[in-house]
Design goal:
Layout lengths: L9 E7 L12 E5 L5 E6 L2 E3 L3 E3 L3 E7 L13 E9 L4 E5 L14 E8 L9 E10 L5 E11 L5 E5 L5 E6 L4 E2 L4 E2 L5 E6 L11 E2 L1 E8 L5 E5 L7 E2 H6 L1 E5 L10 E9 L5 E10 L1
Length: 285
C-alpha cells in the first residue's frame, strides 16, 4: 500500500453564520484597510487551539469570523483570497492565488471565510515559517492581511530512538478519518498507520534490495499483549521504495482494553545492525 496523503494544502471554504465573538488570538499580525472582523479562530481536529508550534501533518482551519467592509454591488460582496507560506529567509514555500475567483457574490452579513492549512510537505519538521493570508475586495481597494509565524515539530507522543538508521518524516495517520493524529486517541476498528519517510542508513545489495527485520506490538496497561507481529518483512525490499515511504498498521477490534495501550514499532537492518524504534501510548475509546 502506498500513501500519498500528507501534502501541504491550502483550501478556501465559505460558511455562513451569525456568530459574534470578541478579541483576536495572540500571535496574529493584522494589517487591514476598510475591512474588519470580530475574531480569527483557529481549530484542529481536537477543537479550538491558540498556538504557534504545529505537529507535522497537523491540519489547521482558520475562521475569519463576521468579516465586513466590502463594497456592495447589487447588495452582494465579492471577496478574494491569496495565501502563501514563506521561510524565515523570505523564500516562498507555497503560494495559492485567487482562491475565491468566481463570479458569484455573497451576502456580507452571512459571510464567514475560512482556510485550511496542513503542516506537511513541502514544509519540514524542525523548521520555522511565516503564513500570509490576504483577503481583498474585488470592487474596492479594501484589504485584510494576516501574518503568523509558526514552527513545525515531530509529534512528541512518538518516543523515537535510532542507532545508525535515520529518517526525515515520522507521523501517525488515521486512514479512517483522513487526518494526521495529533493526540493519542483512537477508536476500535479505526485504520491507523505509523508512517515513516526518508529512511536511510541501511546496506543495499547488488540487486538494490535491503534486508530488514521489523516488528510491531500492542500491549495493554496490565501487560497483556493484544497483538504482536515479529515478521513484518518476509523478504528483502526495494531500497527505492523503502526510502520513499514505510508504514506499519495499528488496528484494534471492539472489546474492552486497559488504557493506555502501548505500541512499539522496531526496525533493524540485518546487514549493518543499524536500528530504529518508536513507541507511543494510545487511548482507545
Amino acid at each position: 500500500m502506498k500513501f500519498k496523503i500528507i501534502y501541504l494544502a491550502v483550501i478556501f471554504c465559505l460558511c455562513f453564520s451569525c456568530r459574534k465573538v470578541d478579541s483576536q488570538p495572540k500571535d496574529f499580525e493584522i494589517d487591514a484597510y476598510k475591512l474588519s472582523n470580530t475574531k480569527i479562530k483557529m481549530e484542529n481536529h481536537t477543537g479550538e487551539v491558540n498556538k504557534s508550534t504545529m505537529f507535522y501533518g497537523e491540519k489547521i482551519t482558520l475562521f475569519y469570523e463576521d468579516i465586513s467592509g466590502f463594497k456592495k454591488k447589487d447588495s452582494l460582496v465579492y471577496p478574494d483570497m491569496h495565501i502563501f507560506v514563506t521561510g524565515q529567509k523570505g523564500d516562498t514555500v507555497l503560494i495559492q492565488k485567487n482562491l475565491l475567483d468566481n463570479k458569484k457574490g455573497f451576502i456580507e452579513e452571512e459571510l464567514n471565510l475560512r482556510s485550511n492549512l496542513t503542516f506537511a510537505e513541502p514544509m519540514k519538521s524542525g523548521n520555522s515559517y511565516i503564513m500570509h493570508v490576504n483577503i481583498i475586495d474585488k470592487n474596492s481597494d479594501a484589504y485584510y492581511n494576516v501574518k503568523k509565524d509558526f514552527s513545525i515539530i515531530e509529534n512528541p507522543m512518538l518516543n523515537t530512538k535510532t542507532d545508525g538508521l535515520t529518517y526525515e518524516i515520522l507521523y501517525l495517520f488515521s486512514q479512517t478519518r483522513n487526518i494526521s493524529i495529533i493526540d493519542n486517541k483512537i477508536s476500535p476498528n479505526e485504520s491507523v498507520y505509523i508512517l515513516l519517510e526518508g529512511l536511510e542508513g541501511y546496506k543495499v545489495d547488488a540487486d538494490g534490495k535491503v534486508d530488514l527485520e521489523a516488528s510491531i506490538s500492542l500491549t495493554e496497561a496490565n501487560g497483556r499483549v493484544i497483538n504482536q507481529n515479529d515478521n513484518l518483512f518476509e523478504k528483502p525490499v526495494s531500497a527505492r521504495d523503502l526510502k520513499d515511504q514505510l508504514y506499519a498498521s495499528i488496528s484494534l477490534t471492539e472489546g474492552e482494553v486497559k488504557n493506555p495501550v502501548t505500541c512499539v514499532f522496531k526496525i533493524k537492518d540485518k546487514n549493518s545492525g543499524h536500528t530504529f524504534e518508536t513507541s507511543l501510548d494510545l487511548i482507545v475509546e
